[in-house]
Design a protein that fits this description.
The structure is a homodimer. Chain A is built from 14 helices and 13 strands. By secondary structure, chain A is α/β, with parallel strands linked by helices. Chain A folds into 2 domains: 247 residues, Aspartate Aminotransferase, domain 2 (3-Layer(aba) Sandwich), CATH 3.40.640; 119 residues, Aspartate Aminotransferase, domain 1 (Alpha-Beta Complex), CATH 3.90.1150.10. Chain A starts with 10 loop residues before the first strand and ends with a helix.
Chain lengths: 390, 390
């Protein structure tokens, strides 16, 4: 009835998944071995060490969770929040809203502070909230809002929270490897990410790290963690030291082959070099799109280089443009999410997708499609601008 | 510091993961596309239809969850159990114990009925429990206990539960495709499985199905599902009909390529042919091992053909035998789990691993290793017995 699925190769420049590096695709096709095989235990140990480097942390509990980034978020709140705990969430997009949802589902008392979508969180807002709520236990926020392309000042926010004796939960799904994530430097307690953004890996895993202090809180809970699958008291035993691992679940073996390869690629390039590459390609994209007359949605100093929100010009059918890019050029860019639906495009330059050839493809394809639909753009100037910036 | 991981190819005859079919490995390495790409939506739709055939159900909510089988178990209880609900769990191994754990974590009132490990659940035990607890809302049990290699009579148990007005949750992690799973025929309400057993797929996904009746219960809960990630009210929207999908999380694209391919392979063979193959190779393994003088742990009528529990002969260091099989023949068999640790081996003949050449390899390797360690076995007769049975 059905035939084997043969995906049309695309260039993935949306908010994720991003293009997967060919080395990673090859790694995922290696023969599956047992999840208790000594060879696999060695792989797990290497992944832990590599993830520590990537997160810039010495946290012993630094592992990939066997589920996507949303499970990373859930694990963070499931382990730290007990019924009645006061949790401050700083929201400036869709994913901060999910954090709030997690707090209430686990019985926490939510203090929700809103920021305009498209703007970074103001540390002053947190300072005042901590004064007003001296009994708060946890502060949660998104470092890199995937819905708005905004980077907030994680160092400043973590410092304020820590000063008030709060634990911090920081969403680094879109930031990790695309710009600096410094878990120990920030003093963050729980940080999670996803594999399908700047790591250029297939979606499905959530790199996750937890400070000693947060581990202690998890170990000394009054009530059991609601989620058996995400209970770090059990997951820790599975990813534990040496050969004393306790069976918990069956690890996604081939996905972890892919992650291991992605981490090797990241370490070969080096973190500062990867951040610089993301910044450089962002500059080139910006030069091209601004020359065309398109506007960026986020103030320059708060932008994520790896995820660019571009305003849809007046009178343009944004969904049609995306459909044409996909159909005519096999190029995927993202739609706006939540309140930004219909108003912006989200153009990702993440990981392996953050390359000059992709910048050029995106700018020229957008110019071609917008021109042919009579959108009010400047023609014939964007490519020179890109060329000058790469 | 580290080099790309190059796994030593093994033959996987433990309790899972089982050998992954080469077609599936190849499928997982195909280029990643976006999870909202129309081509990917088509893949999701095909997977749903194929999973319905595999589960023998018309349930509209029939999807793979983006996490391993343990998340499938958790999703079942997270969605159906509300605080105070009375839940009867029939336990005859490790995984029934996990079900009990799930009930209490979600605030259910647990009625736990134990059966000796290595024996099927007695329907009479359930009949009496349902009389004693007319207010029970849910009955949960494991169809194929991965820790003991036992198959229980799911049809009889579901019928009793349904007769008493209870919803049923049935763990089919190890049974699906290795022996009959008939969701609609049984009248089961929530059934979950894993990809790493008889589907011969990489670990990491949980095929999952929910009856109309169970969906209604989920939609009309008094309290929110504790898990945002596994809340079927949200997951349904993501896997919903046509193009009206609501973004929930990023699907594990490449893992789903693998599952799609696994489902095509299963449908090419046909369900009755796959069950018959598993039965035939079990008979051959049994002939060989019994000729050698080894004993099966489970009474014949209650055995799973795809997972064989074999008693460790007196005086034999079982861990050493497994280590030697792995080191000398790249053959993985499983250890006992829970109270059976040290007492049995678990030999899987699941999916792609259920082939005559694997039966022969396992029997001959066991004979070679046991002989060279002076274990009390009959020598030189096992291979003829296998040959007569294949």
């Amino acid at each position: 009835m059905f035939v084997p699925f043969s995906p049309i190769p695309r260039t993935l420049m949306g908010p994720g998944p991003s293009d997967v590096h060919p080395r990673i695709l090859t790694a995922m096709a290696r023969p599956t071995i047992g999840h208790l095989d000594p060879e696999f235990i060695r792989l797990m140990d290497e992944i832990k060490v590599l993830l520590q480097s990537l997160f810039q942390t010495k946290n012993e509990l630094t592992i990939p969770l066997s589920a996507p980034g949303s499970a990373g978020m859930e694990a963070s709140f499931a382990n730290l929040v007990e019924p009645g705990d006061k949790v401050i969430i700083l929201q400036n997009g869709v994913f901060g809203g999910r954090m709030a949802e997690n707090v209430t589902r686990f019985g926490g008392e939510l203090v929700l502070l809103q920021t305009d979508w498209g703007r970074a969180i103001d540390p002053e807002q947190l300072r005042l909230a901590l004064q007003e709520h001296p009994d708060a236990k946890i502060v949660g926020f998104v470092h890199a809002e995937t819905s708005t392309g905004v980077r907030s000042d994680a160092a400043a926010l973590c410092k304020l929270a820590q000063g008030a004796g709060c634990l911090t939960i920081v969403d680094c799904v879109t930031s990790l490897l695309g710009c600096e994530v410094n878990v120990d430097g920030w003093g963050a307690d729980v940080v999670y990410s996803g594999t399908q953004k700047c790591l250029s890996c297939a979606p499905g895993l959530s790199p996750f790290t937890m400070s000693e202090r947060a581990v202690e809180v998890t170990q000394n809970r009054a009530s059991a963690v609601k989620s058996w699958f995400l209970d770090m008291n059990l997951v820790m035993g599975y990813w534990g030291k040496g050969t004393t691992r306790a069976y918990h679940h069956t690890a996604p073996v081939n996905a972890l082959y892919g992650l291991h390869e992605a981490l090797l690629i990241a370490m070969d390039e080096g973190l500062p070099a990867a951040w610089a590459r993301h910044a450089r390609n962002h500059d080139a994209l910006k030069a091209g799109l601004e020359a065309m007359g398109l506007k960026f949605f986020v103030p320059e100093s708060e932008r994520l280089p790896q995820l660019n929100l571009v305003e849809v010009p007046e009178g343009v059918d944004e969904a049609l443009v995306r459909a044409r890019l996909l159909k005519e050029y096999n190029l995927e860019i993202g739609a706006g999410l939540g309140v930004l639906a219909g108003k912006v495009w989200r153009i990702g330059l993440m990981g392996y997708a953050s390359r000059p050839e992709n910048v050029l493809l995106c700018v020229s394809a957008l110019e071609a499609v917008l021109s042919s639909s009579n959108a009010p753009i400047n023609r014939g100037v964007a490519l020179d601008a890109v060329q000058a910036a790469v």
